[in-house]
């Protein structure tokens, strides 16, 4: 990465870190660019060189998390219902609990659910449009998101392995 791109990445990351620090304390929809640049120590011009709005900064953070998700996943062609795939998800979100909870506390949970669903679609393809089974992936993503969020909010007392096993037990009709 050239020096200019590396410098822009550092600026973006500093701004995103500042954004996360506001989570739970201030509604991100009411957050100003001035507050962000003051907290991050980044110049106003640097903010606007990289982002048009606070919403674009939020999107940047979501894209970075999705990128890390896919990079860590590798080239696995596992079915999204496989024990290995579900365990990876719980481990990934445990490692990123602070970020996930920041999005949740900032009331952008729907955006995060969209990211989780999009990650599943990108990894496994969308369901056939002509079939009622097209809804399965969306059901699975929503169920996973809600269970994962509850687990994170409750302090992750159970390990990712236990959560993956329980999730699959529930998804497989409680068997």
Automatic annotation (TrEMBL):
Residues 9-69 form the HTH tetR-type domain. Keywords: DNA-binding. The keyword DNA-binding applies. Residues 32-51 bind DNA. This is TetR/AcrR family transcriptional regulator.
